[in-house]
Q: What sequence folds into this?
């Protein structure tokens, strides 16, 4: 039987709404400013995603993001298990072609959060069986933020995934203020909207708008 994690922050997964993923290539004011603004707005989960910097630079930035998140938000690192270990992040988010969950769990230990990207209910069911603490499903709509994301799978897929598993479902891909209602109504516990946040002049304001929309729909 697989060990379940015991991270106190894991309880925050039940309360997440807007999910910030950093993007240094798109960020208007810098990722540290983005994280600070989002967390100040009430964002409870942050993923540091960086594809162009070296490991030393990533560890420095990750340490700063961890400090900003502190006890207020879950802090995850995309793909890089080594960086997550180096800074003692709350966990990682990995993709279908990255390190297997079982291996990541063995390296990180039972008390860390692991999220996995999925595209359908079959992958989601397997992710949950393998010990994923949440799944990220997408791309929901066509997106230019992630070049290899593929075509949008549509919001109906969110409901299929949500009905198949018990862990939280995070929607990502082409989501904005105009279509996020449909995403949450389709069953997403949380959502990611990268460009709408990091390209804005006011990260605090934009994050609050998303959080308010999500919470209003969840309250019914």
A:
């Amino acid at each position: 039987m697989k060990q379940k994690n015991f991270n106190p922050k894991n309880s925050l997964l039940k309360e997440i709404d807007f999910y910030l993923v950093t993007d240094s290539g798109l960020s208007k004011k810098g990722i540290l400013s983005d994280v600070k603004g989002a967390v100040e707005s009430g964002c409870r989960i942050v993923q540091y995603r960086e594809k162009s910097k070296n490991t030393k630079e990533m560890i420095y930035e990750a340490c700063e993001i961890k400090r900003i998140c502190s006890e207020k938000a879950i802090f995850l690192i995309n793909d890089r298990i080594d960086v997550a270990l180096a800074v003692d992040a709350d966990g990682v988010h990995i993709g279908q072609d990255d390190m297997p969950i079982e291996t990541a769990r063995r390296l990180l230990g039972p008390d860390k959060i692991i999220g996995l990207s999925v595209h359908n209910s079959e992958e989601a069911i397997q992710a949950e069986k393998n010990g994923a603490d949440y799944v990220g499903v997408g791309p929901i709509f066509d997106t230019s933020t992630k070049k290899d994301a593929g075509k949008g799978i549509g919001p109906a897929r969110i409901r299929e995934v949500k009905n198949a598993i018990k862990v939280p479902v995070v929607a990502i891909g082409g989501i904005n203020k105009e279509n996020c209602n449909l995403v949450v109504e389709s069953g997403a516990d949380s959502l990611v909207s990268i460009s709408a946040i990091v390209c804005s002049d006011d990260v605090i304001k934009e994050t609050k708008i998303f959080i308010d929309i999500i919470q209003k729909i969840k309250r019914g």
